[in-house]
Amino acid sequence: MPSPMPFDFFAPCPRGLEAPLAAELAEIAQRLPSAAGAPSFEAGAQVPGGVHFRGGWAAGMAANLHSRIASRVLLKIAERPYRSEQDIYALAAEQQWERWFSANETLRVDVTAIKSPLRSLEFATLRVKDAVCDRLRGVSGARPSIDTAQPDVRVFAFLTATNCTLYLDTSGEPLFKRGWRLDKGAAPLRENLAAGILRLAGWAPGTPIYDPMCGSGTFIAEAAQIALGVAPGVERRFGFEKLKQYDVSTWQTMKVAALDAKRQAGAKKADLPIFGSDISGDMLEKARANLARAGVPSLWLKQLDARGIVPPLEQPGIIIANPPYGERIAVRGRGPRGEVREPRHASREDGAEAFSRAQPDAADSEFFRAFGDALKQRFAGWRAFVLTADRSLPGQMRLRESTKTPLFNGALECRLFRFDLVAGSVKSRPGSQESQA
Ligand SMILES: C[S@@+](CC[C@H](N)C(=O)[O-])C[C@H]1O[C@@H](n2cnc3c(N)ncnc32)[C@H](O)[C@@H]1O
């Protein structure tokens, strides 16, 4: 039986997307029926890296199913000041984990910390794991097995300088995994970062949107699902489905409604003003397969060099792109002397650090200058949003940004540059503003 008590939830998200996530959660809350006049969802504080909210199971399940920006939805179990690993063990050992899962479920524990005085987070993780296992052995005689790859249940501990908070994960796989991505392509954007950027860009269904370096199609798949009312989580399962108690009948109603909406979207002869192109035919094939699995009818997708693009329709709209950068994936196409350029792919060991240090070479600069010219000359009246780790990009494009918003693509610090395009030049502005999303 589901507990009638409201719960405290925390939805982590990529840093920089806290405000868009709070706005999205407020919209999700409006869909929930309120029980006897009491709000079924109460918005909580935005903190760096996520948003708190309070509500019943329906709120937690709806956030899992409908949030495009959250990385997970965590259910708060307990919070208390701590000084040592022993304090953390004691807090975890007191909790009634047996209410939520049994020793038959496999377990994974993760600990994250900001300014924790503890010397080893690994040791803290072991202590939480021991406490949960000891607790279950005490009540049932059996310990759960640990499975770090595909656990049934995940417990998170979050440590600040003074407090330890324990959470039970209700999502399972992170929420950016929608279940529609067949092939990752070379450097796909995480779906929740793409969705957050659409919101930061102020895009709404009906406004034309064009990604001229669409790769595997993340921006356009997210936009099309939003336009068609397809829930991001309709094709996947969630961690709460493995817990002993959640509101099964409300979940079934929610899931059936989401599946119906997806079926209706697939049957629509939608003529969405959502456009994608890429220089790579292989990437476009991946994008097509991803869109089909995301329940989106076929969109305008063309194989084009971004330097040669023209507006796909007369009405101005939004250009959105995360161009290739650094060593991870290089600009392709013909160089200034007509030579064909092949992408340089990073070795598997190269991480975000490697490409954040990479300097643009002369041919990259030529590409971005020509791309900037294409925007200035042919996209008057459009707004362009470009996500990159390369802060020199506006200079290379010879465009002045009107805002730049700090965002994190995993560990990589990026900027979302906004350019307001007018014929032949850019709107003259006193200077760029650093905006907080
Ligand atoms: C960082 S990836 C974009 C990833 C995409 N947002 C996704 O989620 O899959 C950059 C893309 O730019 C494309 N590209 C490289 N050079 C190009 C050019 N000259 N014109 C158009 N696209 C180009 C690559 O094929 C690649 O798909």
UniProtKB/TrEMBL annotation:
GO molecular-function terms, A-Z: RNA binding; rRNA (guanine-N2-)-methyltransferase activity; rRNA (guanine-N7-)-methyltransferase activity
Q: Where is the THUMP domain?
A: 59-170
Region (Disordered): which ranges?
Answer: 335-356
Keywords carried by this UniProt record:
Methyltransferase, RNA-binding, Transferase
Check the record and name the InterPro entries matching this protein: DNA_methylase_N6_adenine_CS (IPR002052), RlmKL-like_Mtase (IPR000241), RlmL_1st (IPR054170), SAM-dependent_MTases_sf (IPR029063), THUMP_dom (IPR004114)
Biased amino acid composition, Basic and acidic residues: 336-351
Q: What is this protein called?
A: Class I SAM-dependent RNA methyltransferase
Which source organism?
Answer: Trinickia dinghuensis
